[in-house]
Amino acid sequence: MKTFTDIVRHRFILENLVAKNLKALYRNMALGFFWSLLNPLVMAVVLTAVQLRFFGQKHDWPSLFLCALIPYNFFAYCLSGCAHSVVGNASLVTKVRFPRQILPVSVIVTNLVHFAIQSTLVVAAIVFFPPMHEAPGGGLVPTQILGWQLLWLPVIVLVNVGLVLGLGLLVAGANVVYRDVQYIVDSVMTVMFWLCPLVYDAGAVLGENATWGYWLYFSNPLSGLLDSYRRVLYHGTSPDLAALGLAAFVTVLFGIWGVRSFWKHEHRFADLI
Amino acid sequence: MTTAIRFENVGKRFLVQHQRPFLAKELLRSVLQRPSKTNDFWALRGVSFAIEAGESVAILGANGSGKSTTLALVAQTTPPTEGTVTVTGRLGPLLELGAGFHPDLTGYENVYLNASLLGLTRRQVDGLLAKIIDYSGIGDFIDAPIQTYSTGMKARLGFAVIAHIDPDILLLDEVLSVGDGQFAHKCEATIHAFQKAGKTLCFVSHSPAQVLALCQRAIWLHQGKVQAIGKATEVCERYQRFLDGGAVA
Fold this sequence. Notes:
The complex is a heterodimer of chains A (273) and B (249).
Chain A: H1 2-9, H2 11-27, H3 35-54, H4 61-85, H5 90-93, H6 102-128, E1 132-134, E2 140-142, H7 152-177, H8 181-195, H9 202-206, H10 212-218, H11 221-235, H12 241-266, H13 269-272
Antiparallel strand pairs in A: 1-2
Helix pairs in contact in A: 2-6, 3-4, 3-6, 4-6, 4-7, 4-8, 4-11, 7-11, 7-12, 11-12
Chain B: E1 3-17, H1 23-32, E2 38-52, E3 56-60, H2 67-75, E4 82-87, E5 91-92, H3 107-117, H4 122-136, H5 151-164, E6 169-173, H6 181-196, E7 200-205, H7 208-214, E8 217-222, E9 225-231, H8 232-243
Parallel strand pairs in B: 3-7, 3-8, 5-6, 6-7
Antiparallel strand pairs in B: 1-2, 1-4, 8-9
């Protein structure tokens, strides 16, 4: 609990670090905030071209892809940034006493801003490539996206932020002790891109019934989260509560592990950097 | 008189790893049950001293004598391995002048970042901003990115922030050597005013001349132990003799 009350008490540091991250990033870019749209945009255009041309996907594929890619990007940027957050601020950590957990948390808050900006791409995709589904009688009909199921979004985002907080603290502390953690994180995220439902739909792979393969697949909380985003934003239904519930449960476990691991190493940060 | 900084039988041990540990390698080692090779190194051992509030004390010593470790312990960025360190009062830490500045941010933005790290609230910085900018003599450059600043300008802005956060204990790490003559003069005047106000000064140096200019008392560290402690003139004299090639005792 102290992890978070200290942040509230020192929120002025947090504000300044987030402002630093954002300003330092965007000031050097001619396109400013539009820059952060470019990476997912290029990714979506290339993969859409491949999917439509070679795999015969439906024309709404950009919406299917982007509503999972943007949260995935948020997740990946957060973990990569958190892993680097303490080590990259060595000059501060060795000189000033301030709550160290502010460093990874500032990375997460910064990326929440990027996440919000990039979310406009999801909206654009849904508008220009409206999600379709097969009607009972055959043929494609537009899916109704605007509905009560959208109220699940804040819940999903909350679990998502909880997950990156736990894992972020974990990798931030671990990377001080073992410097290869940040490379391991990047590699794992590349694997996750294919392991989680990004370029394919989880339902299409797993089928309808909850088998052991289903539970194994969704024991990876990122799979459950991305599937939930997609159900709400693309399929227009409520999330799969078993998958989302499992993701939330694993998030709590990672949260406890992350906080404990961070505090276990915290007193040695200045010595090890 | 209260004690500002008290060291009681303080020791600080570092584990010297011959190679940086890697997670992949350590996992393999733990499977093979081969512990990694580490050596102990005591940067400080059995160090005791007290600095009273309002005193100006220098910590003197050659490279590797434990000065920086002592300051890190006072700044509480690292805990002692044994013994206790007690610090009473608000610290003005030794951000190496300009460390913690981000090159892409303007001077103005860096003042906020730096001051917040040193423990100030937004309202306090708002109130001090004009004074800090004026003191630094940066002028219109305050709105330019720090990367356009000269080393001297960075040092001036850094010292301007520390000079205005009004700490009870000021920690200085050989900072006076930067900046031009005029600004060095200003720094000294600020430090003297600070001393007159009854604040505590803890000054780390390897130069007896600087120590004598600022401090009445001195602590000489040698290889992690207190070699001498007492009046600055006497300690500096012994230290100077040691530097000139004499024996330690």
